[in-house]
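retry 2 of 3: previous attempt timed out while embedding 2'-monophosphoadenosine-5'-diphosphate. Reduced batch size to 1 and resubmitted. Inputs unchanged:
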Amino acid sequence: MKVFCILSDERAWRSKSPAMHSAVLRSHGIDGVYVPFRVEPDRVEQAVKGLAALNIAGANVTVPYKEAVMPHLDAISEEASAIAAVNTITNVDGRLTGHNTDAAGFIDAILARKPQFTAGSAVIFGAGGAAKAVGYAVKTWGAEKVAIAARDVSKARSIADNIGAEAIDLQTAIQEWTEPKLVVNCTSVSTDAESPALAASIEAWAPAGCEMVVDINYGRQDTFWERLARRAGAEFMDGLPMLAHQAARSFRLWTGIDATASEFVQALEELR
Ligand code: ATR
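retry 2 succeeded.
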């Protein structure tokens, strides 16, 4: 029996990863379970050490501990180290390594939808953990011009400086970034009710030549990001494919099995 888990705060109980991974483990005939663990902020080190002590076969880490776990691991992959965030931990004979599958999962999801797409220029809204991974992904994918747009420009700058992007405020984004090929929402808000202010700003924006709008959130109706895509004549994608693709990559790291992202999408759809 293999045990997998996700480490988070009380949000661990709401994560879709336990049900999603458990379904794919079952369908591949692996005798395993995937469980959520709620960890107190002052017990992150004990929780990480516990993964080795308890022979946990693999773990995900999500908000708010993607950075906090890093000092307690035995090794960090090059990608996770460049992004400065870990979302996946492997356990090989008690040696714990931190990986980041969010960035590659984001690119996988875009290419699965639009195989010929190249990023060119991109505006990323938000300056949290998701923006860090997406900014790194877009930049290493070869986008020439990338901006991190946030209400707190100093937060945007700490991400932008790390990857060679620009840091701008929200107004500058909509006034000056008139031709981004890719727009990504990495803020936690997508609907008018969640943020009337951001909704109004995005509503006033009509970028030309935009080919794709990605909202990393999912499960929300009538989002201003989807309306932006419609106005711009761009393709729209929510966060579900990215969730599935990062999960497929984590699963591969733990088990060596090439489960497809559509297996994870199907598992997610069965949860609805
Ligand atoms: P995650 O790890 O999922 O990226 P996060 O670190 O909480 O989550 O980041 C969420 C981002 O959404 C933050 O940059 C946040 O802005 P602040 O850093 O200023 O808090 C951004 N965000 C949340 N609500 C927002 C709103 N109404 N308008 C603009 N940005 C918002």
